[in-house]
Amino acid sequence: MKKLSLIFLIITFISCKNESKYYESDKDKINTEISSSSKATEKTNTSLQIVEPVKWTTKTKKISETDYELIIVANIEQGYHLYSQKVPDNGPLPTVFIFENSDDYGLIGTTSEEEGRTVHDPTFEMEIKSFKNKATFKQLIKLKNKNSKIMAEIEFMSCNDTQCLNGYSDIEFQI
C-alpha cells in the first residue's frame, strides 16, 4: 500500500509539474489507471488475512535470589488446538522452545507443560496430546547477571477441523 501511495504521489507531482506536456485524455487515462490499481490493491488486501490462532504471553516468577521461573502462556482461539512438545513420530510438529544462548543465565532442566488432553486426532489418525483454549509452559533458569533480557523462539503447529497451521513466535522476558 505504501508503494502504491508513493507511485500515486510521484505521478501526481509529475503531471502537475509538466501539465502542458500531457493532453487532457492522457491525464484521464493516468487517473483511471491509478484508480483501477488502487481498487485492485484494496480487493487483494481485504481477501488476504493472516490467521494466528495462538497468541503468546510471558511473565516471570522469582523462586530464589538466582532462580526464576519463566512462564509462557498460549491463548488458543476457539476451535483450534495446539500440540504438545512430545508428539508421536509421523505426527504433527511439536511445540518447541528455543532459548537464546547467553552468559546471563542457564536453563535448569527442560520446559514443562500442563497435562493437556490426549485424544484420537482424525487428521493424523493417532493418539496425540494437545491443548484447547489455553496452555501454560514453564522453564526454570539460574540467573548469573541481574537485569537480564532472555530471548526465545517458539515453533508450533495448531489445527482446527479443516486446516493445520505452522506457527512461529519470538518471546522475551525481562528480569
Overview of this structure, please?
This protein is of the alpha+beta class and 175 residues long. It has 2 domains: 2-47; 54-174, Immunoglobulin-like, CATH 2.60.40. The protein is built from 2 helices and 10 strands, in the order ααββββββββββ. Strands 3, 4, 6, 7, 9 and 10 form a 6-stranded antiparallel beta sheet that branches. A hairpin with a 4-residue loop joins strand 1 (54-62) and strand 2 (67-76). Helix 1 (2-17) runs antiparallel to helix 2. The protein starts with a helix and ends with a strand. This is Cytochrome C biogenesis protein. Pfam families: DsbD_N. InterPro entries: DsbDN, DsbDN_sf. Residues 64-169 form the Thiol:disulfide interchange protein DsbD N-terminal domain.
List keywords for this structure.
Cytochrome C biogenesis protein, Immunoglobulin-like, DsbDN_sf, elongated, four-stranded antiparallel β-sheet, DsbDN, 175 residues, alpha+beta
